[in-house]
Each structure stands twice: as structure tokens, then as C-alpha cells.
Amino acid sequence: MSAVPVIHVVDDDPLFRRGVGRLLQAAGYQVALYDSGHQLMQCAGLSGLACILLDLQMAKLDGLELQQRLKCGGCTLPIVFLTGHGDIPASVKAIKAGAEDFLTKPVSRGILVDAVENALARRRRQLDERDRIDALRSLVAALTPRERQVFFLVVRGKMNKQIAFELGTSERTIKAHRHAIMVKLNVRSVAAAVSIAERLGMLA
Amino acid sequence: VKVEGRGRFFNRRDRLRLSFALLLELGRRGGVSFSAAIFVLAVAHGAMAAAPKRVLLLHSFGPDLEEEDTFAGYLRTDLADKSPVPLDLYELSLDAARLSEAKQDSAFVDYIRALLAGRSPDLVITMADPAAGFAQRHRQDLFASTPIIFGLIEEPRARELILTTNDTVVSDSYDVPAVMENIFRILPATTTVAVVIGNTPIEKSWLKGFIRDIQPFERRAKFTYFNEMSFEDMLKKAAQLPPLSAIMYAGVSVDARGIPHEQNEVLGRLHAAAHVPIFGLYDYQLGRGILGGPLNSFRELSQKTTDAAANILQGASPSDIKTPPLRPGAPEYDWRELRRWGIADANLPPNSMVKFREPTPWEKYRWQILVAAAVLLGQAAAIGWLLLERRRRRAAELESQRRVLEVIHLNRTAAAGALSASIAHELNQPLGAIQSNADAAELLLAASPLDMDQLRDALADIQFATERAAEIILNICKLLRQRSEVEADEFDLNDAIADAARILDPEARERGVTLETAGVKEPLPVRADRVQLEQVILNLAVNGMDAMSGVAPDRRKLTIQTGLVGKDNVEVSVADCGVGVPREKLEEVFGMVYSTKQLGTGLGLSISRTIVEMHGGKIWAENREGGGALFRFTLPLAHAP
Fold first, then answer.
1. Contact at 8 Å (CB) between A11 and A17?
2. For B437, which residue in chain A has the nearest alpha carbon?
3. Environment class of residue B362 by beta-carbon count within 10 Å: exposed (0-12), middle (13-18) or buried (19+)?
4. Is pTM beyond 0.80 here?
5. Backbone phi, psi, residue B484, to 5°
């Protein structure tokens, strides 16, 4: 992960936008500037190690609404809100909706950079988690359909006999599948296998 | 000669003069040195039932002696008025002033005898000393059985008369010492007294008496006598008298040069010439120039003489009629002379009478003055009251204007308060920009190599942001400044609307309202208080935004528009897309304390109306066809665009 983090700055006040952009750039980030939420939405590259710096009050599409739209659109980039004045209801709403932080203008470099760093750290964790899950998902994907059926029932705590009965086969066959699964998933205990299934959301 | 009518003596003097001239001429031609005049005057009593009584008035001097002339005038009137019987009046003068000796008595006796023609008169009244002497001398040959009244004769001389039973005396008595006392009483500083008197024998004899009476007073003042000189010299001398002098006027019938003088004029001319007060002896002189004092009353003397005559004509015995000598009465003064010589009433003797008092304007026009004064006073009071009222009203107006300004200011601070959140946000934008740029600059300086372009841009942005912050603060200060009076300036209404829009813009953004300004592009000069006009626009705009809080965000639109109405007025309208105003409340909204908001003061529209009307405009509300309210106000243009 050597790529420079990207900060997406959305503010309809060009003066402020330029100032923050200049600061973040000087602080070593890559900066993308947008004068409205719509402009941000049209941008395709909202992925990777990045976060969004969002002005709460904007004329056409305000910050909270943009937050909702991004969430719906599947964008998971952390959002740091900036506001001209500390409006408590708005901040609560934003935090509940998953905002990373809520800053008031004017904001000092330290606070801004801390907030951005926190957001990026979370983004990093997010990305790591996603990588891990992707690895697990590829392990599970390597199972044969039969093995996947057996796995599905094993992680739900079924005994070999029950599984063999459900699948209409012999207990020996199940044992062989079960061994192959453990090898393919690189786990030694049933508990570890259950953990993988849980993380991939297969237990719901 | 009989003249019909009672008491008519017109042209008496002229006729007398004519007779004298005639007689003098006759005398000269005939070598007879006498002169006489006789008049027959009838006093008729209506139908004249009884035969009139014949009365002979025997003058000594005729019109030459002022005293006698005046007395005779009074006596004629009194006789005519009071006689119980009709009278046939004869008058005869001895002309003693000109004929100094009584030598011509016989000729005169003949003349009278011829005149009376045997009919002796019923009564003879002599006047003054010479006539009395003549009557005494010829008592037997002329008036043997006729009663005689010796009138107009001074007391010491009266006592020398030898009276028969057919005679009576009506005398008077001078009181020269009293006259002198009077002079020194009211003018104590007098140093010189000039005695003015003629030079006839009788006047000479009077003068003798005067000098005797005056002697005791010679220590108090210097006395000079104007007798042995012409009247013109008398006037000259009188004019040259030093101050603190006085004149005692005893009458001038004929002066030292033998020129008789028109008696009525003598005192008047003396009065005109002299620069000092004049004192006299007789009451008839009062009012002709004398100052006054104890005076012998000729009116009274004439009445007493008339009374005696009436008694005798009714059959009384003359010797039974005793008339005490007439003495000077209570002092009398001429008010005008007192004024002229500055003599206060307090200096006059007690019981004195002041005559010829000119009524003061106050006495003359008392009512007119009172009414005029009352009217003036009333007017003055009314004017004063009005002035006071005006002052009070002005003070009240000022006070009320001050109050209105205070309320307007309160409304403005309230409006500013409502906008404060968005204003703070607005201010934080440039502040945030400044902060970020400063921080960036700090980092840029620490980097190497220096990125000079970025640094320059950062500093430029800081300057730009500072200007913007200052501008925002200035606008707020303008809005919040407390003013003690309306400040009228001429400005372009479009500029004021742009200012207001700038203040409103952040609020509109925060509320998701689209704010638009539209209308006339050319300048709209108005003369008004700019801040107050902006306040009206703010009030209307904030109301509009409030009205749209329940409307879908994409429909929230507020339009501020200008337009010309005719040539002289401009109209500003603020249109919203909100809920509108209930029809019946379109007027009520401008009333006091109308509010639909929980936090509003309810004063906004009321104050807006006050401000607009103060500037000579009108404000009203309408509902838009497509929904929403429209507030309009007009203002007079400063001059046609």
C-alpha cells in the first residue's frame, strides 16, 4: 500500500476549497476538489485509500443528503464533515449515518490532519478487512459444489451422520469431503471453519 | 333801540367801538371834549305783560378795563337770567381811562339828561370807582329818587362812599398778601416778582395799594414793577426775566404810552412771551394763562349784584340790603400751568381746586383701552399658548420619532439575530480559508525546495479572504449600528437590494432557498435611509423564507424584483413560493404584533410599514396565482431616471 492517499474535498466556496486543498497537498496528500455533491457523484474513482472532506451546507445538494446518496451508491469512503457553525442536530445525524468526524470552520491544521488520518486509518482497516475476506472468499470458491454443501452443514453444527442422511450418502464419503474442506480452507478445527463461514456472512 | 329776544348781546363790542369813534369825532368837531356812548338794549319777556323796568349800567372804563368789561359781561347775563321783571337795559361809559379828569361832568350830565328825557331809570348800577364817584356827585340832579347799587368797588374805597337810604354797596376786597403768600408757598425758591399793571389813574392807585401790601415780602424776593413802560417793553422784559421769577398780573388797560390794549389779548400775549409762571387776581383769568391761587370771583360778585338788583326792583329798600364784601375764595389752579411748571398737587394749599385738568388718555378712553388691552392680552395668551403647544408637540414628535427609531433598531437587531447563524457561517468561510492557507504556507515553507507559486497563491487567497471577512463585518455593523435619527442619502435602490441579498445569501443557502434578484437594470435613485430600506427587504425576505420552510427544496425560490411605477415611483416586490397569506389577513399582517412564528417578535411587517411610510411610500401584500405571497412597496424616486 504505497499509494498516496487521496482526499476528496467538496465545498461550494472556492476560496475555502482552495485553501483546504492547498493545506492537504502541502501536508502530503493527493487532493481532488469538487464544487458540488453532483460533481463528486459523477467521479468514478471513489475507491482505494481515500476519504471525503464534505461541507455540510451547500446550496444545491447539502452534505447530509450527499452522505446518504453515497452510502446508497455503495461508496464506503469515510466522510469528514466540515461546517461553518456547530449545528448539534446536524452533527448527530451525520455521525449516526457513519460520518468519521465533524469539524467546524475554521479548522486548524492539526485537527484537520488528525481527522483525515483517522479516516484514512479506518479506510486502511476497511481495505485490509476487505482483502482478508476476499482471500477467504476465494478459498471457499475453491470448494467443489458437493464440498460447499457439506461445509454449509458442518458450520451449522451437524454431525457426519446427519449430513450423510441429508445428502443421501454414506458417512465415509462425508468424512472424506470434510477432510478435503479442512485442507482447502487451511483450517485445523471445525471452530476455525465456522469463523470463516461467519465472516463471509454464510451463517445468516 | 329795542332788540327782540332775551339775553342777546351779539356784536356788543363792535357796536361799542362804533359809538366811541362816532362820539370822539363829534366831540372833536364841536370842540366838546367828551365822549360818551349809550346803548339801549331790550330784554323782552315773551308777551311783555308789564312795562319793562329801566336799568342804567354806568361803566367807568367800558371795554378798556378788563376787570370791568368781564364783570359787565357776567352781570348782563345774570340780570337777563334772574330778573323777576322785564328789563330795559341802558349802558353808559364814562371812558375814565381816557378822560382822566371829572371836569367834563357837566357835559356828560347834560348828555344823560337828554338821553333819559325826563324818564328817570328804575335802577342805576355803577361799576368801578369813577362811576361810583360820578353817581355820588350827581345823585341829586340826575338820580334824585333812583336807587343806586355801587358795584365792582374795592373795599377800602367802598367805605368812603356816603350812602343814602336809597343806596347799597356790593364790594369786593383784594388780598395781595394772600396772593404773595401763595406765590412763595408753591414756588418757595422765587427770587424775583414782576408786577405787571397799566398806567391809568385807577391802576396807579391800585399800584399804590399793592406796593404797600407787598412791602413785608421784600426781604424774600426782589420786586419790579412793569407799569411805566409800553406793553411791548413789558413783553420784552417779561421774556428776559431770570429763572426763579414770577409775574403778578394785575391787568393792563392802557400802558405808559397811552395805548389801550385789547383786553382779551393782553394776558395771552404776556403768557406767550414770558418764561416764568404768571399769577393773577381774578377767577376769570384762570384758564387764560395764570397759574392760580386765591382769586376774587367775578361770577359771584355779579350774582350778588344781581341779587341786590332783583330785590330792589321788587320793592325792597336798598339800605336794607347789606352785602358783605366779597373775599377771595378757596385757591384755584390751572392744571396745565401746574404741569408746565412742574408743581405737584401736594405743594398746593389744602382745599385748593385744580381746574382744566386734561383727562389722561386713560380717563378719556378707559373702555377702549381696557378692551384693546384685553384683546391684546388675549391674543398674547393665545399666541403664548400656541407656542407652548407647538414646543410640546415638537418635543413629543421628537420623542416619538426616537421611539420609532429604537423599535426599528430592535427589529433590526432581531433580524440580525435570526440571521446570526448564517452570518457566522458566512464569516467562517473566509476565516477557514485564511487558517488553511496560513497552515499550508507554514508547511510549504518547511518543504524544500520551496514552491514559490503555491506560497504566493496562498498569500493572495489570505488577502482575498480577509477582505471578504471585513466586508461581512462591515455589513453587520451597518445593520446593528444604533442611530439617533433617520439618515437620508441618495443612492441606487439596486445597490441596496444587492447589499441585502448579500446578507441574505448564506441564510438562503442554509435553508436551501434559491434567492434571485431581478428587475430594472438602470439606476433607481431614491432618497432614503439606506440601512432602513435594507431592513425592510430583509424583513420581507426572511418572512418569505420562513413561509417556504414546509415546501419541497426544489421549489423554494425567493425573488426580489424592482420595477418603475409611472415616472416618479419605484416598486420593490418580494415574492415567495410559500403558503401565502390568508385572504382576510392581507391587511392585518401589517398590524402590531402579528406573528405566525414561535420565535418572531411580530413587529417585522409593522416596522417595515412604518419605515416605508416614513419615506413617503406604501406597502401591501398580495397572494400569487401559483401559490405564495407577494409583498410590494413603493418609494418616490429622487429624480426621474
1. yes
2. A19
3. exposed
4. no
5. -90, -10
The candidate with the shortest Cα–Cα distance to A55, out of A42, A66, A44, A46, is A66
CA-to-CA distance for B506 and B471, rounded, in angstroms? 14
On average, the pLDDT of chain B sits at 82
Kindly report the backbone phi and psi dihedral angles of residue B570, in degrees, each rounded to the nearest multiple of 5, phi listed first. Answer: -120, 145
How far apart are alpha carbons B526 and B476 in whole angstroms? 22
Instruction: Give the pLDDT confidence of B437-466 residue by residue, as tens digits.
Output: 999 999 999 888 888 998 999 999 999 999
Q: How far is CA B336 from the centre of its chain?
A: 23
Query: What's phi and psi for A47, nearest 5 deg?
Result: -150, -175
Quick check: B429 and A58 CB within 8 A? no
- Per-residue pLDDT of B281-333, as tens digits, reads 888 888 888 999 999 999 999 999 999 999 998 888 998 888 899 989 889 99
Answer whether B430's CB lies under 8 Å from B466's CB: yes
* Residue B238 in grid coordinates: 417779561
Looking up cell 376774587, which residue turns up? B296
How many helices (H) and strands (E) in chain B? 17, 20
Strands (E), chain A: 6-10, 30-34, 50-55, 79-83, 101-104
Question: For A154, what's the count of Cα atoms within 13 Å in the CB-facing half-sphere?
Answer: 25
> ipTM score here?
0.77
B458 and A CB contact within 8 Å: yes
204 residues of chain A, pLDDT tens digit each = 457 899 999 988 888 999 999 999 998 899 999 988 888 888 877 788 899 998 887 767 778 888 888 888 888 889 999 887 767 888 888 888 888 888 888 888 899 999 999 999 999 998 998 898 998 889 888 889 989 889 888 888 888 899 899 888 888 999 999 899 999 888 888 888 888 888 888 877
Q: Which amino acid is present at B158?
A: A
**Distance between start and end Cα atoms, chain B:** 110
Q: What is the pLDDT of residues A71-80, one digit of tens each?
A: 888 888 899 9
CB contact set of B267 (below 8 Å; sequence gap of 6+)? B66, B249, B278, B280, B285, B288, B289, B290
Helices (H) and strands (E) in chain A, counts: 9, 5
Across the interface, whether the CB atoms of B454 and A26 are under 8 A apart is answered: yes
Q: E strands, A56-137, where?
A: 79-83, 101-104
By the 10 Å C-beta count (0-12 exposed, 13-18 middle, 19+ buried), A157 is classed as: exposed
Q: What H or E segment, with its residue span, contains residue B305?
A: helix B298-313
Q: Which residues, in sequence order, are CB contacts of B60 under 8 Å at separation 6+?
A: B68, B93, B94, B96, B126, B127, B128, B129, B130, B131, B132, B202
CB B3 within 8 A of CB B91: no
Q: Report which of B332, B353, B481, B479 is spatially closest to residue B419, judged by C-alpha positions.
A: B479
Q: Do A19 and B509 touch (CB under 8 A)?
A: no
CB-based contact (8 Å) between A91 and chain B?
Answer: no
In sequence order, what are the beta bridge partners of B565? B569
Burial B393-404 (b: 16+ CB within 10 A, else e): eeeeeeeeeeee
Instruction: Using an 8 Å CB-CB cutoff, list chain A residues near B461.
Output: 15, 18-19, 22
Q: Coil, helix or strand for B559?
A: strand
Taking alpha carbons only, the member of A148, A197, A150 closest to residue A171 is A150
Q: Assign 3-state DSSP to chain A and report helix, strand, coil percentages, each to 5.
A: 55, 10, 35
Q: What is the dihedral of CA A155, A160, A162, A163, to 10 degrees?
A: 60
* Cβ contacts from A onto B, under 8 A: 100
Chain A contact present for B440, CB below 8 A: yes
Please check whether residue B365 is in contact with residue B373, taking contact to mean a CB–CB distance below 8 angstroms.
no
Is the separation of the CB atoms in B280 and B286 below 8 Å?
A: yes
